Input
Amino acid sequence: MIEIRDLTKVYRLNKKQMAESHTKNPKKTAVDHLSLTAKKGEIYGLLGPNGAGKTTTLRCISTIIRPTSGEIYVDGHEVQKEPEAVRNSIGFLTSDIKLDDQFDADYMFRFFGRLHKVPEDVLKKRRDELFDYFGISEFAHKKIKELSTGMKQKAAIAVSLVHDPDIVIFDEPTNGLDIITARNVTDYLKKLRDDGKLVIISTHIMSEAQKLCDRIGMIIDGKKEAEGTLDELLTKTCTNDLEDAFFQIYSARKGVM
Ligand SMILES: Nc1ncnc2c1ncn2[C@@H]1O[C@H](COP(=O)(O)OP(=O)(O)OP(=O)(O)O)[C@@H](O)[C@H]1O
Output
């Protein structure tokens, strides 16, 4: 289970970032008093526009960055107090963690498996299963730098799952993938959910959230503006699809459109 209580993350901007953002304020609040709970056996989607604070939230859960305030519990372990225990129970995929270009997928998989202390026989079984499923075997010995975007993403997904984590946190998992590979990935996320794991993803693709997620949290300007199952969100907004529901919530928040 993941429980976020009143999470706030404020970035300190350098001069260049301030100039790029056309602001004189050196502080940027990326996540603003956000609370949510996600449980095993569900796919929870963080849905929001660019810059809403989705990646920042996932990076705080995954112990990559420290919250400014608030608490996050991952299977009962608080991320700042017990980061090791948190890292052991999660698999994290994000575009800013890249596999080393000089190595191949097979090497990276085994390297991270050993880092997570996965026994050799289990590691081989996991490798066979994941490489088969994602069709990685045929390029397992090519250097990462020689792989296409989709191949890299598939390899990164397999590596993030090497230790069979109970909680899978994927930041925009289908980013850059063609529809066949994207379907492959979302089907695997459903399988993980059906195996009783908690899957939490971020996305700005409405159709993906609509089809994949059991519950959705809509994030705008770092705040959770709505949360529920697809049916609950459609009922709440009197709409027929998630895109319309999102626009309604977005315009209520921004006072536009
Ligand atoms: N390291 C950083 N330093 C300063 N500001 C940052 C940093 N990382 C993110 N931000 C800012 O925080 C806000 C939230 O960014 P974040 O990446 O969490 O959004 P997001 O919802 O994941 O967006 P996207 O869908 O575009 O990936 C944005 O305004 C972004 O510019």
